[in-house]
Write a structure and sequence with these properties.
The chain is mainly α. The protein contains three helices and no strands.
């Protein structure tokens, strides 16, 4: 589930790249990285380890897609939104 986070270099980063374009995906990735760091400070050391892993080992530039111009269908947007909700539910502590 953590791999669907919107950090660049992960599967979720590629989904956000398809949904929002390059600048939107970078902004979403930065927001997710900051949120992951803050949550790691206050809840779990495992999240801090994941933050460090993403920062140091998956921060290389993404390979450009062959076609970044075509829009994606509404069904794929809906599926990406559902996946994002599942990621948020898995990351937010429940108590």
């Amino acid at each position: 589930m953590k791999n669907l986070n919107t950090l660049l270099g992960t599967d979720g980063g590629r989904v956000s790249l398809a949904l929002f374009g390059r600048s939107g995906a970078q902004a979403a990735g930065l927001f997710a990285l900051i949120a992951l760091f803050i949550q790691g400070l206050f809840s779990s050391d495992l999240l801090l380890f994941y933050f460090a892993f993403i920062t140091f080992f998956q921060s290389e530039a993404e390979i450009p897609c062959r076609n970044e111009v075509d829009d994606i269908t509404f069904g794929r947007v809906l599926l990406a939104t559902l996946s994002g909700v599942l990621v948020l539910l898995s990351l937010i502590p429940m108590g």
